[in-house]
Amino acid sequence: MPRSNRRRRDLEVRPLGASTEVVTETWRGRPWNVRRLTGATSGREYVCPGCHQGISTGTPHVVAWPAEGVGGLEQRRHWHTRCWGARNAARP
């Protein structure tokens, strides 16, 4: 059987899909890249780290990941828009 030189799709970092631009915001004294998604491209459910509740498919929400240092795209987290806005009011 010939060897496949193609990368497996399930091992690749998935793109965030069509959405607005990435902006940098501060949280806990660190810069975070933030992208606001419309929900139209969301095909799965996520758990918001702010409230620990599910973000249903098709729901507009925010994706945030560290802008520098340790982390990157594999560290991105999906937040409810309201939870991301109230992130500084939440206890660590």
The helix/strand series, from N terminus to C terminus, equals: EEEEEEH
Helix count equals: 1
First and last CA, distance: 53 Å
Kindly name the structural category: mainly beta
Biggest sheet statistics: 4 strands, antiparallel
Number of E strands? 6
Fraction of residues in β-strands: 25-35%
In one word, what is the shape? globular
What integer is the average pLDDT? 79
Radius of gyration (CA) equals 15 Å
Q: Biggest sheet, strands in spatial order?
A: 1-2-5-6
Low-confidence spans: pLDDT under 50, at least 5 residues?
none
Query: What is the helix fraction of residues, given as a range?
Result: under 10%
Q: Which descriptors would you attach to this protein?
A:
single chain; 92 residues; mainly beta; four-stranded antiparallel β-sheet; two-stranded antiparallel sheet
Helix and strand arrangement:
Elements: E1 22-27, E2 30-37, E3 46-47, E4 54-55, E5 61-66, E6 77-80, H1 81-85
Antiparallel strand pairs: 1-2, 2-5, 3-4, 5-6
Structural notes for this entry:
The chain has 1 helix and 6 strands. The protein starts with 21 loop residues before the first strand and ends in a 7-residue tail after the last helix. By secondary structure, it is mostly beta strands. A hairpin with a 2-residue loop joins strand 1 (22-27) and strand 2 (30-37). A 4-stranded antiparallel β-sheet has the order 1-2-5-6. The protein has a two-stranded antiparallel ribbon with strand order 3-4. It has one helix at residues 81-85, and strands at 22-27, 30-37, 46-47, 54-55, 61-66, 77-80. The model has no long low-confidence stretch (mean pLDDT 79).
